[in-house]
Amino acid sequence: MALEDVRKEMETCRRCSACKFIPLEMVNGYENTYVCPSIARYDFHTYSAGGRMVTGVALLEDRVGYSDKFIEVVYNCQMCGACDVACKYAMDMEVLEPLYEIRFRCVEEGHTNPVLDKVINMLRKQKTMVAGIQSKRGDWAKGLDVKDASKEQVKVLYHVGCLTSYDKDLWKVAQATVSLLKKAGVDAGIAGANEVCCGGRAYQMGYKEDFMNQAKKNLEMFKKSGAEIVVTSCADGYQAFKVLYEKCGMKPDVEVLHITEYLDRLIKEGKLEPKKKVDLTVTYHDPCRLGRLGEPYIPWEGREIPGHVRLFDPPREFMRGTYGVYEPPRKVLKSIPGLQLVEMGRIKEYTWCCGSGGGVETSNPDYAAWTANERIVEADSTGADALVSACPWCEKAFSDSINSQGGSMKVYDIVELLDKAV
Ligand code: SF4
Ligand code: SF4
Questions:
Q1: pLDDT by residue (tens digit) across 27-43?
Q2: How far does residue 98's CA lie from ligand 2's centre (Å)?
Q3: Dist. CA 44 → ligand 1 center (Å)
Q4: pTM of the model
Q5: Is the CB of 90 under 6 A from ligand 1?
């Protein structure tokens, strides 16, 4: 695939602006109408998906070049996919795909964001997207007596992810996950110092070759561990393993589950019994890459029939975010005695991004923090005591924002709450 291959998608854009908002009948208040953080923040059409597609066509026709402004517009986007599902509410066209292709083209032609180049250099040297030394990647598990899946066979391989491995504030999430897997009697292990980045964030940032290199390394590890199931508590990892690997012709030969899907299964099977009360009212934030961007990949090969109406032979099914992982996290929360779940306005496929995606937390931390803060205001309006998510990037974005603004809302990962209850 190349930028030229998505030209038809970009030209199909009707400039209707639906990609900026959640569908009208789902709007429950003026403050919750926007779904695209980029347009909400920068308030100029170019910063929307539709605007970026117009720019993509202009790039193909040499009507714009790689100016600083062009690069700024391309990278001030979380690649959260909200535009894609909002547009597809009415249209049969790809929206996120051209945004990826524009970034791939920028990287191929050497017009990148220098801040993101540094992150990629770190990935190439240390196999991580956050600062850290490979040999220390498994330090969070010291003393936990967990199997090393790079040396012995396991049934379940727990892929921890870069951020949780190196951010000491998040070690509690990985430790709670191991605690739950042990309580359930699961034959699980980690790759520890031999675990490497899933590559998902490199893909989002446009560095496709680096993504492919990481995918190959992870597939080797999956095979070496003998695992039947790979679980991850990172939404980036989930989207990479579940969707992007298959999309790029490297479908893993294992079952890929987000930890919330696996915990939901273990509860159903009676292997985990949440009995202790956790008296808390929480609201759940759907991570973009677990929800709308985590739905199973739908392969399609065929041709578009020329004409005014878009028709495909054979008929094509579009990914619209409907089949993302929405219920398992909610079921796990509802299984916890004493815990009350209240919902925000923008949920499931119309969730508002935490701000971290697409490399924005590194390239434009102010914009990332603003995006996180918008969500915290929304969470606060529900009356919940805590904002709960199922991805370390979301948890960090929200915690950092609350700490800097001095808010009182607490932030948890689901596994922390479940571990308290079991
Ligand atoms: S991308 Fe879709 S929703 Fe956005 S302006 Fe174009 S046609 Fe409308
Ligand atoms: S991916 Fe997210 S931030 Fe980027 S244009 Fe689409 S909705 Fe906006």
A1: 888 889 999 999 999 99
A2: 12
A3: 14
A4: 0.97
A5: no
The number of C-alpha atoms within 13 Å of 313 and in the hemisphere containing its C-beta is 6
CA distance 65 to 58: 9
Closest-CA residue, ligand 1 atom 2, reads 87
Q: Which CATH class is domain 124-268?
A: alpha beta
Contact 396, 365 (CB under 8 A): no
- Of the ligands numbered here, which is closest to the C-alpha atom of 12? 1
Minimum CA distance residue for ligand 1 atom 6? 13
| Distance in Å, CA 4 to ligand 1 centroid | 19
> For residue 326, what are its two tokens?
């929405």
Q: Which atom of ligand 1 approaches the CA of 18 most closely?
A: 3
Q: Convert the pLDDT of each residue in 312-333 to its tens digit.
A: 999 999 999 999 999 999 999 9
Give 91-129 as a DSSP string: --S-SHHHHHHHHHHHHHTT---HHHHHHHHHHHHHS-S
Range(s) of the chain covered by CATH 3.40.50: 124-268
